Every structure is written in structure tokens, then in C-alpha cells.
């Protein structure tokens, strides 16, 4: 029966050649935890997802996941607007301004591995549904905070809920065919950029009239929509297989076939790797010999000596407003009572640099498929380092905006390339935990970056930009040292142990 014609993009590495001999007996039941051969009457989740292709099911999931990213982006972008506004309203110091950003990243750091563990143990949909409700609730409460301490507490809880947002990429990537996975995950950043632009436009309208508290409240509207659609999110078929629920996985695959207008594969669903870890969502399993080097290097890349990818990205976001406020010498030190609210030109420049994410996204799509994940990330880190070095010549506002435009596009594409690589390199049993751990370590860099982008920058632009450049160069070397290139590689459900 030529059933193999129904498949596409099958990975031959999962099929061991049969030695010549007598005819094989009729297929027998095979325990999913010990499958090493995929017989003709069986198929894996990977084979099913590749055969069913990209269609209406993935389009709907793109919109659902994209809404989550857009809402998260608005909550992140508001950080660069919130600090100057609170400086004017409550006369907070420059260290308190940095603390309003740090507290959010601290919440994200403390919760990211927690949400990853929840996702691997109880499902991606469960974690994202909880995240949507909590994020809307605490985001709305922070808009009515009566004083600075209450605002810090509530923004910390917002950060705790945001720690789950990277799991939307885990869910999304697990439903994408191998050939479309990289470009689709990178394109997801369009929703992030759209959310950032929407937040800047909203601030441009709301801040001069209603103030920062109304801005915080109105920014939660996309969070409400995401919380309401969470019941319609599909659960990952790979998660169901890894948790020993093949019937539920099969039902999800049948839904994909129906939505995409493709015939469902015949046969029995099996797990596609030979050796399983046994327990899902264990943080310590990220450091088993087979994964140790990959995990340590990825933690460095995401955080980079407690810096790198998140350090550079969020640092650039925060530096944008600070550089527009700072005089060309970079040595002006305003006192706590010296308030300069962001002007219309500041918001427009922030909007232009945010729009830079779109060309950065499309450039990343082109090079990530042509040159692979590792070389793409390394090259982008080096270009970013060069752009940041040029920021010391900030006397011309137009020149400064152009350099920030280029740097923002590069680092945005780089951040998304890391989101492509990480789910690809880890198995289903650990994927959400791995993404959560990388996100948690990245927040260490994000916690440090306000003190460089908002505090150190006001004392010395040269030192601040040098720090970012050095971190980017070190992270580029780490990218090239990664042991696995995932370009064209199918996603694994369990870890295969090799000598």
C-alpha cells in the first residue's frame, strides 16, 4: 500500500534501513516509549504536521498567538514611556525610574521557569489561559495604583504573568511544518512590532490629555481580548503524545486536516524517537550530557553574561527615549525635580525606530533560511555592535534616529531568531521548560539594562555603548559555538541519547 505518498518532508534519520532477510511478520503493537522504527502502517506527529501542511488552522493560530505577542509588546513598550512620566508626576529619582523597569523583568525572571514547567506538565493551553487572565487583571490594577510602592508591586505581578508569553511560541512552533517553521516564527514578530507601534501611537494621543494612568488602563484592552479567546486555543498534539494521550493528539491532528482541507493520514500514531527522558518539565534535564553545552550556550546568548539578547534589545528600547532627552555631550544630570515630559517629536522618533522591526524581520527571514540559525544570530550580533558604537556621535538628531532604526531592526530580528532556534533544538518533553529557562536567564540581562541605558548613559554615553558592543561580540562567538544547527531539522518528541 503506497501510503508513503501521503507524506512530505520525511526525515530519513528516523527510519533505520532493514537488513535483507525473510519477509517481515504482520505489524505488531509497539509501546510508544520504545519506538525505534516507524512501520508502514504508523505515522508520527512530525510526519502528520508536515503532510497536512500550512493552512487555515495555522492562520488562525497565528492570529491567536500574534494577539498574545501584541499585548505583551504593549506592556513592554510602555516601560520606556512610564519612567519619564512618573519622574514628572511623582518626582521619582533616576534609580527609581530604573526600578520601575527592573521590577517587571524580575517578575518575568522568577516566573518563566514556573510557566515552562506548567506548560510541560499540564499543557501549553492551560498555562496561556492562566497567563491571559492574570496579565489583564494586574495590568488594569496597576493603572489605579495610588503611589509608587503600590505601582512597583503591581508591575512586578504584571511581569510575573508576562513570563508565560514565550510559551505561545512553543505552542505555535509545534503546529508548524518543518519548511515553514522558521519564517512563520520570525513573522510572529510583526505582531510584536505592531503592538509597539500601537502603544506609541496610543501614548501620543493619551499622554498629553489623560495621563499615564489612563495609558496603563487602555493598554490592557488587547489582554482582555486574548483572555477571552484562550478557550478556543488548541492544545499541542506533541504535548498530548509526550504525556501519553495519543487519542487526544489524533483528534487535534484530525482538526488540522479538516481546517486545512487535507486528507488525514491512515495508520496509527506513534512517538518518533527511541529513548525518552521519562519525566516532563524537569529543569535539571536541560543539563544532561546530551543537552548541556546547548543549554549553557543558549543561556549565554539569551542573557549573555547576564546581558546579551534581552540586554541589548530592551537596552535599545530604553536608550531611545533617553538619547532623545540627553544633550549631545551625554553629561547632563537633571535633578529629580527637573521634569521634561516626552514631546510629540520624541514619540514620533520612537515610532520610527519601532517601525524598524519590520525590515529587520524580513531580512531575518531571508538569511535564516539561507545561512542557518547560528550564522544568522552571530552576524546580527556583530552588526548590532557596530551600530551601537556609532551612537556616541549623537549630535545630529536625524543621524541618531537612522542609526537607532538600523540597530532596532537588527536586534529585533536577532531576538526572533533565538525564538526560532530554541524550540527547535529541544524535545517536546522539555521544550516549554527550555524556552522558559532561556527567558528567565534573559530577564537577568533585562534587569541590568535599565541601569546602563537610563543611569550610566546619563553619565557617559561612551561607556554605556561600549558595554552593549562588548556583550554583543561575546554573544556572537557563543552563537557560532552552538553544537547543533537546526535548519531543516524536524522537532523531536523525546531526547535521543547517543554515545
Automatic annotation (TrEMBL):
Instruction: Give TM regions.
Output: 95-115, 127-146, 152-173, 185-206, 212-233, 296-316, 350-368, 377-393, 399-421, 433-453, 459-482
Taxonomically, the superkingdom here is: Eukaryota
Family membership, please give it.
Answer: Belongs to the major facilitator superfamily.
**Which keywords fit this entry according to its UniProt record?**
Membrane, Transmembrane, Transmembrane helix, Transport
Domain Major facilitator superfamily (MFS) profile: start-end pairs: 61-487
Which cellular component terms (GO) are annotated to the entry?
membrane
PANTHER family, alphabetically? MAJOR FACILITATOR-TYPE TRANSPORTER HXNZ-RELATED, SYNAPTIC VESICLE GLYCOPROTEIN 2
Which SUPFAM superfamilies does this entry report, sorted A to Z? MFS general substrate transporter
Compositional bias (Pro residues) at which positions? 19-28
Report residue spans for region: Disordered.
1-28
| Gene3D superfamilies, per database record | MFS general substrate transporter like domains
Biased-composition ranges, Basic and acidic residues, are 1-15
Annotated membrane topology? Multi-pass membrane protein
Task: Provide the protein's localization.
Answer: Membrane
List GO molecular-function terms, semicolon-separated: transmembrane transporter activity
Query: What Pfam families does the entry give?
Result: Sugar_tr
Name of this chain's protein: SFRICE_006364
